[in-house]
C-alpha cells in the first residue's frame, strides 16, 4: 500500500496524543478486567461455605418453608429467589437493596438454616468492577473511563494506518514480513516498537469488539444508545426488565399461590440455565420468571398472575430488538461468558494487550527527547481532506466524550497560535 507521507505523519501525531491520554488508564482497565474474569472462581472459593451445602438423606424443605425461614433471618424484604441447579447448592434469596448491587441471603434447603449473607458492595470483586468501570470515582470516574475508551478507538484506527508497511523498493516478502516479525537484532528501541506494533495490529479488531462490549455501560454513549433503542424499538420489550404496570386479578375464591406452586409452574416450562423468580411487588403484582442461559435465544421472561398462575405477559428472545441483541452479545463476550473458550480468549487478549501497551510506552520513552513531549511534527502545508474531516466528525458524534475533548484540544491549539502571533 502506497501511503501518503504527510497524512502518515499527521495520524502518527494523533496516535501519540491518543496514547498519552489513554495509556495509563488502559493498563489499569486491562489489569482489572483480567482480574474480574476470575470473579466466579474467586467467589466460589471465598464463599464456599455460604454457597455450598452437604446433602443428607432428608428431603429438601419446600420452597415456601425456605422462604419463611429466609424472611425470619433477613433484615429487609425478600424480593426474589434463584433456584439451585444442583443438590449441593444453597438456595439464594435476593434481599431488597439499592441500585443494581444485590444483597443475597443463602439458605440450606435441607435444614432451613441460613449459611450466610453476601452484600455485593462489600466484596473484593465489586471493588475491582468499580475500579474497572469508574476508577472508584463514581460519576466523574465513569466519564473519565468513557473518554479514555473513546480515544482508544482513535488510537486503534490511527495505529493501523501508521503501522501498515510502506510500499517501497524492498521486496513484497520483506514488506509482508512486517505483519509477523519482531526485530530482535536492530536495537532495543526497534524491538519495543515492533513488539508494540505487531502485537497491537493483531489485537486491533478484537479490541474493537471488546470496546463494543464495554461502551454500553458508559454514561453518555450508553444513554445515547438507549435513546436510539427506544426510538427504533430495538431494545427490550416494555415488560422484559420490569413488571411495573402489570397486575394480577384478585379472586375472592382463591388466595394467592404459594411459592411451591409458582416453582412447579416455572419448572414446567423447562427453561435452560438458572431460573429466577421475582416476587410480586404489591398485593396485586405479578410473579416474574426468567432464566439466565448460555445462549441468548434460550432466554425467556414470563409474568404470572399470583392468584391463578396464568400468564399475564410472556416474551421469548425473538421479541428482543436487534440493537439489544447485539449489545448483549458483545457484553457477554466482553465478560467471557460464552463458555471456557471465550474465557481463555479474554484472558489471552487482556495479557497480550498489557504487553503491547507496555511495549508502546517503553518505545515512546526511548524515543522521547528530554524536556519535550516528542509529539510528531506535521508540515504546515498539510491540509486534512474532507473525507478525513467527515470521519472525525462522525467519530465525535458517535462518541460525544471524544468529540468534546477534540473541541477543547482545537481551542487550545488556536490559543497557542494566537499567543505566538502576539
UniProtKB/TrEMBL annotation:
Transmembrane annotation, as ranges: 12-38, 143-164, 195-217, 341-365, 388-412
Pfam families: PepSY_TM
InterPro entries documented for this protein: PepSY-ass_TM
Signal peptide segment: none
Lineage top rank: taxon: Bacteria
Assigned keywords, A-Z: Membrane, Transmembrane, Transmembrane helix
Entry annotated with the keyword Transmembrane helix: yes
Protein name stated in the entry: PepSY domain-containing protein
Organism: Paraglaciecola algarum
